[in-house]
Amino acid sequence: xxxxxxxxxxxxxxxxxxxxxxxxxxxxxxxxxxxxxxxxxxxxxxxxxxxxxxxxxxxxxxxxxxxxxxxxxxxxxxxxxxxxxxxxxxxxxxxxxxxxxxxxxxxxxxxxxxxxxxxxxxxxx
Length: 125
Fold this sequence. Notes:
The protein is an all-beta fold. The protein is built from no helices and eleven strands. The radius of gyration is 14 Å and the shape is globular.
């Protein structure tokens, strides 16, 4: 549903054929890794439905399109590595593209918009 991100000759995207798992692909189209799925443990399962991916330096902000959980994932070409997560939105259809500018990340669902400070602003020293 959303455009993949190219990083270090790999594509990163939320896969529609893999039930919303965050996926790293080689340029040959072969899966390198996918976010984990734990049977029976919803907290351990890392799926993102129709969520969005936004690159930032050597990391990705990945927003779960169903729950509004924001995850910070290392841009790693060998394994899935989640660095942090936070429940940001609680509405439905969290599919809007995130915007990142001046150290602020703006995300939204169908009912609200949130601005997060995720890095130094341009004026910070």
